Amino acid sequence: MSARDWQKSSYSAQGNACLYVSSTTDATIRLRESDAPDTILTTTPTALRSLIRSAKAGHLDHIGKV
To answer: What is the DSSP annotation of 24-53?
Structure first.
């Protein structure tokens, strides 16, 4: 994986805490954060779409709340 394979999210500001995304030839999507670039989350387009829709709908708002 070279650096040019990764695209930075347009929602990431300059500096730390940037999200990067990359796809492979087998339609797998890879995600990583700039703070931990060696940790890569691998998923499918369908699963990522479901996660994004759930987050936008507020279904995950309770996560992380004490």
So the answer is: -TTS-EEEEETTEEEEEEEE-HHHHHHHHH
d(CA 34, CA 25): 23
Give the whole-number percent of the chain exceeding pLDDT 90.
47
Whose CA is closest to 12, among 36, 30, 33? Answer: 33
pTM to 2 decimals? Answer: 0.70
Q: How many CB atoms lie within 10 A of CB 32?
A: 19
Tell me the CA end-to-end span of the chain in Å, nearest whole number: 38
Residue written as token pair 């931990």: 36
Q: For residue 2, which of 22, 17, 25 has the smallest C-alpha distance? A: 22
